[in-house]
Amino acid sequence: MENTEFLVQLILLLPLAGAIFNGLVGLFIPGLRKEGIIGAVGTTVVAIPFVLAVYLFFGLQGHPEPAIAKIYTWMAAGNLSLDFAYRIDQLSILMTLIVTGVGSLIHLYSIGYMHGDRGFWKFFAYLNLFIFAMLNLVLADNLVVLFLGWEGVGLCSYLLIGFWYQERQNVQAANKAFIVNRVGDAAFLLAMFILFKYTGGLDFGTVLSEGPQLSTTVVSWVVLLLFIGATGKSAQIPLFVWLPDAMAGPTPVSALIHAATMVTSGLYLLARLSPLVLQAPAIMAVIGIVGALTAIMAATIAITQNDIKKVLAYSTVSQLGFMFMAAGVGAFFVSIFHVMTHAFFKACLFLGSGSVIHAMHHVEHDLQHRGLIPGHGDPETPLDSEAHQHPTRNNPLPYDGPFDAQDMRTMGGLGKYMPTTKWTFLIATLAIAGIPFLSGYFSKDEILWKAFEYGVDKHGYAWFVWGVGIITAFLTAFYMTRCYVLTFLGKERWPHADQVHPHESPVTMTIPLVVLAFLATIGGFLGVPAVVERLLGVSSWIHHWLGAEYGGPVAEAAVSPHGDNLLLIEILLLVLGALIAVAGVLFAWSRYGKQGLAYDGVIRERFGALYRWWSQKYYWDEAYDKAVVDPVIGGSYKGLAPFDQNVVDGSVNGIAKLTYAIGRGLRVIQTGFVQNYALAIVLGVVVVVALILFV
Amino acid sequence: MIAPFLFFILAIGAVAAALGMIIARNPVNSALLLVLNLFCIAGLYLTLNAQFIAVIQVLVYAGAIMVLFLFVIMLLNLAEMPRPQQFRWSYALALVLGALVLAQAVYVIAEGFNVIPAAASPEQAAATGTAKAIAMDLFTTYMLPFEMIGILLLVATIGAVMLAKRRFI
Amino acid sequence: MDLSHSLNWYLALSAVLFVIGVLGVLLRRNVIVILMSVELMLNAVNLTLVSASQAFGDVSGQILVFFVMAVAAAEAAVGLAIVIAIFRNKLTVDINEFNLFKN
């Protein structure tokens, strides 16, 4: 394709330019710091790359060779030349479309959501910077530029999670995200070092041709380390702990970064390096099992959460587990398929929750202005700090502390007031639950089918993956429906609900919701199951687009052909998947629809100690605190701090003291008496002459 | 025969005058003894056929510089300095160093030089110290230093005037 | 005069005068006497130069003496002016009193 290099540069540099513009304008030109200008610039620099990516997408039809655009040589040493080189192939273009498409919708949404915020310009600068980094990640042609993007998105995640930095816990959440990611990044770096040592290069051409030929041990180590890096970025066990805390950031951030794009980087990495991963079957088992465990763990936690964003956060962790399950059984294109559908419905869910939170903030302000709850310096109704969880006259809220706009216990019945949000949220909920013919059904069931098929192909762990996947699918339907019902149906549960009502969000926020819900509905048809392919003659577009056997870049595990034997089982499994989804939805709808919040109590009683484990998130944070955080901080206080003060500062001060002491010692020579100086001169003459004469 | 005799008389005179100069208590005495020393050295120049230099020595050194010294001594109306009361180690060291310098100088002299024989006849020898001989080189080869010396003297004059004024303007 | 044998005497004399000058600089406390001792040292060097000039038949030595005398004159003038300037404030010419450079 002509102009590819130019288009790639444009795609990459427009968001960067947007970030610089927004940043500089925000800092230095208050006159231009209008929300309209910044919002328009911020959104356009992401929307235009989307259009360009569409153009490139059409250019890739028919599977030509991937185009590699080398923009700039970063560093060259010896035989290694690291360039800013970008690869346009089916996988990277698909990811680019997702990033820029969903990204521009979220930028548009943010114009409404962040309205009135003092850091409006900063927000858009950071968002644009994030898009730039993410594009670097998905378009990179070598691991170094990918890592640059990898770190860049981590940085932007940190900046955006801690966006409202005035609250201490936001900053702590941002730190946690960055530090935990760092652990994964260290593993990634080690993998890069090993790859370079054994293959001599870091660009994908070299890695994918030489890499698979290395010994299994080396490849296994590389893949394991890369997977550890992926668990950091994509929130799997053991490095997922940052994602729930990351909900402290503004909701568009959660939607873009922690649902649709950044957290999928790990999956992209595995898909890109799929020829390599397939050479390490033992590690693939690890990937599959870890994914499965993460999925079910997060799903059980999500059942117990009351904060709407936390439910979605754990749901994200769980769905990412599904994607890794697919990678673990060698079906990388399916994991990318689920990346795509997940981006649609999860972004829709997050933006919907943002819409809800936005509305509940207005409710909160309304209540405070009318003096019905404390806040805004109202002295008449002080908080009773000993109020327990039941509404009393002094504390009308069912939980301790001030009004929380994100807590579902004070929501309910919002569907009356926010119809667009309600319908889009419902569609997205049904999609993630896996209701037939919505997008989640196709991708999730494809994952389960691939696990099943792999198990039939004599890989034992795949059965475990499949079983866990079935249970988790049910749980997913259950907790997501719970979330929907508690938020939008039933009676209003916030205090003085008769006087204070929320209202629907502005159009800049509802348009993206509608678009995403539409995509969540029809997006699944891009990847029809194999049996449908066989019976109806329709092909799975995404399989043909990405799969290596059709000329694409994503490899697939070789499964011994089973002909038509398993056709019936495949159809039965499709039906089973549909039934599970429907059962989960109906079960939750009936229980929570009738009993509302009280059904939570029923679950708590039925599961007892298990419920406590789930609601305390399996005590992961506490365990890390005890095992890692406290020793490090204690070690710093006891070991490093004294070292810094005594040794480092001591040596610096010591040098100063030494200089001073030498100076004081040498001062004695300056007696001030001229004759002493003359004496010294003559002495010098005698010595020098003696030296000349006798040496 | 006269030459060594002259040399010794003048040499002893010079050394004695020098010693006297540094021992004398009264600064006027010191100055006058230095004048005597300068005359002796001028005599020694004459024994070396350096007529021009000898005359310059008397005119400039003894006649101008020492007069200047005497002017200053009398202007400041200096009294006699007292003898040093206590023994100081710096004095001993100074004497030792002086002795060392002398020893080194004598050592160098004793090493000997390869002397290129100078002019053969007394007339030629006498011709080397005349004003004409000096002027020949001074105004050709050494013209630049000559002019620089002029400027140097100008600078010194200005400097001395500035330093000794009552108030700096 | 043929100095091929007696040059050493002149040089030795010059060395003695030079050392006397050095001792005067190091041992006397009167600034003016110190300046005079410096003049004595310069004269000793002049004597060396003239005797060497006669020994080697080169008149450049005497020209150098000429310049040395000029410089000595300039230096004596400036030095004495400085002494006068200091005397105005300190009312003494004891060199041990000129110790403002101490430490």
Global mean pLDDT of chain A: 86
Greatest interface and its participating residue counts: B-C, 82 and 70 residues
* Rg over CA atoms of chain B: 21 Å
Radius of gyration of chain A: 30 Å
* Largest pleated sheet of chain B: none
- Helix and strand pattern of chain B: HHHHHHH
**CATH-assigned fold name of the domain at 1-79 in chain B:** Four Helix Bundle (Hemerythrin (Met), subunit A)
The average pLDDT score of chain B comes to 86
Low-confidence stretches of chain B: none
**Poorly predicted tracts of residues of chain A:** 377-390
Structural class of chain A: mainly alpha
User: Into which percentage range does the β-strand content of chain B fall?
Assistant: under 5%
At a glance:
The complex is a heterotrimer of chains A (695), B (169) and C (103). Chain A has 26 helices and two strands. Chain A has 695 residues and is mainly alpha-helical.
Describe this structure in words.
Chain A is mainly α and 695 residues long. Chain A has helices at 4-28, 35-59, 90-113, 120-139, 143-161, 168-199, 204-210, 216-233, 242-245, 251-260, 265-272, 274-277, 281-304, 308-328, 332-369, 419-433, 439-456, 460-488, 507-522, 530-536, 541-546, 567-595, 598-607, 609-615, 620-666, 674-694, and strands spanning 67-77, 80-88. Chain B has a domain at 1-79: Four Helix Bundle (Hemerythrin (Met), subunit A), CATH 1.20.120.1200. In chain B, helix 1 runs antiparallel to helix 2 and helix 2 (27-47) runs antiparallel to helix 3 (51-76). The radius of gyration of chain B is 21 Å and the shape is globular. Chain B starts with a helix and ends in a 5-residue tail after the last helix. By secondary structure, chain C is an all-alpha fold. Chain C has one domain: Helix Hairpins, CATH 1.10.287. Chain A binds chain B through residues 675-676, 679, 682-683, 685-686, 689-690, 693, and chain B through 90, 93-94, 97-98, 100-101, 104, 107-108.
